Amino acid sequence: MKLDAKALRYLTSEDFRVLQGVEAGSRNHEVVPTPLISQLSGLRGGSGVHRSISNLAKTNLIAKVKNAKYDGYRLTYGGLDYLALNAHQKQKVVYSVGNQIGVGKESDIVVVAHSSGSQRILKIHRLGRISFRTVKTNRDYLRHRNTGSWMYMSRLAAMKEFAFMKALRENGFAVPEPIAQNRHTIVMELIDAFPLRQISRVPHPEALYSELMDTILELARFGLIHGDFNEFNILIKEIADPSEKGKAAADADTEESEENIRLEPVIIDFPQMVSIDHVNAEMYFDRDVNCIKRYFQRKFHFVSDVPGPFFSDAKKNFLRNPGKRLDVEVEASGFSRKMARELETYMKEVGADGDAGAARDDLDDDDDEEDDDEDEEDEGDSEEEDTHQEPEVGSSSTEVGESAQRLE
Ligand code: ADP
Ligand code: MG
Predict the structure, then answer these.
(1) I need a labelling partner for 343 at 20 to 30 A (CA). Which of 45, 130, 158, 391 fits?
(2) Domain region containing 52
(3) How far is ligand 1, taken at its centre, from the CA of residue 393, in Å?
(4) Region Disordered: start and end of each range (predicted)?
């Protein structure tokens, strides 16, 4: 599912009200009956509403569903994207839409721009998009899903990610600045960096390794476990070292010139974050630690001679020297425990296992290049059809260039 912002400029305000009507109706109806759409859009019935319905259906923002009992429409992911983009545009968060730089299993990543020209990242959550790995177990479940559940769950994922990103940022963690959240989308700062996955040489792997382990422990001190801490979700900023030693190394222009580059990790991707009190906290903690251990061993041939860190150390550290409890803070901010449970259950059911699944499956693979993993399944639902790809890609070189779609 690609974000396609083209039609946005041509939609009238009536079209938008009708689209909003379909959205509102979807909360209680899998297929929203046409008379209800008229009513919810707040427009007086008649040809205007019907014209809008037909415009929206033509651009695949809603889809006609013939039902045994009645005919009606349902909102598509495209329609939901438009509603969210329109809201971001009204709030002056997004001015134009540029290139899509990432297609994950559960999200799309798009470069957008503010009216000042500064670039930002729009992350569109797409829970319920099927992963080929879980097709068999989930086919039945997904057949019975209703529009409300994928919409609601994708919104929960966006709310959760935004709430955690905000709490982490406010407490000094290196994460992108969260800017706005609407429906199933968030807008955040664009980090000019590549994922660790794409970094082929690290001059001092031991330093980066221990910084990442410290981050895992520091998160635990604040009551949190990332839950998907791996080479796709760690962006590595390369910062020039302005010190004399750094300059000398740069001037020498030798192997040593790498010495003047400092690597600064920035952590992303938070929908799977859990509290240190979670029943499976230890498993998530160990998984995060082991992901990094294995990756460093395989890619940089680095094995630490310090064992751990272990969950028991993290827990002791947390109890003895607690930072603010961000798990509790996030709950208080409106992303409730009940929502967290609902999202977790759904993510398990649809096999949403973040990048960790890809990283784990990929461990025996000696080839460090991106794999062309083309296995896929569609949902039997053409406009939501999608290909599975590994999470991409170096974003830093992507410009909001000629292909940018102005929204107004
Ligand atoms: P997913 O849940 O699909 O894994 P991520 O949030 O991990 O989504 O983003 C997928 C990819 O998009 C990342 O690996 C990274 O390359 C890129 N990306 C995501 N957020 C940003 C950002 N704020 N700045 C730069 N690149 C980003
Ligand atoms: Mg990711």
Answers:
(1) 391
(2) 1-75
(3) 8
(4) 349-408
Query: CB of 227 closer than 6 A to ligand 1?
Result: no
Q: Hey, whose CA ends up nearest to atom 14 of ligand 1?
A: 232
Last residue of a domain, one of 13, 47, 75: 75
Q: Which residue matches tokens 């070292």?
A: 241
Active-site residue set: 228
Radius of gyration for the chain, computed over Cα atoms and rounded to the nearest angstrom: 23
Q: Is residue 399 part of a domain?
A: no
CATH code, 347: 1.10.510.10
pTM: 0.84
Residue 308 exposed, middle or buried by CB count within 10 Å (0-12, 13-18, 19+): middle
How many angstroms separate the alpha carbon of residue 102 from the centre of ligand 1? 7
Domain annotation covers residue 199? yes
The answer to whether residue 86 is domain-embedded is no
Work out how many domains the chain is built from and give that number.
Answer: 2
ipTM, two decimals, is 0.99
Q: Which is nearest to 322 in space by CA: 366, 378, 277, 272?
A: 277
Location of structure tokens 């094995």: 303
Whether the Cβ atoms of residue 228 and residue 272 lie closer than 8 Å to each other: yes
Test site for ligand 1: of 110, 123, 343, most ligand atoms within 8 A of the Cβ: 123
Give the residue with greater pLDDT, 171 vs 138: 171
Domain final position from 75, 108, 123: 75
21 inside domain: yes
Residue to probe by mutation, ligand 1, list 269, 350, 393, most atoms within 8 Å of CB: 269
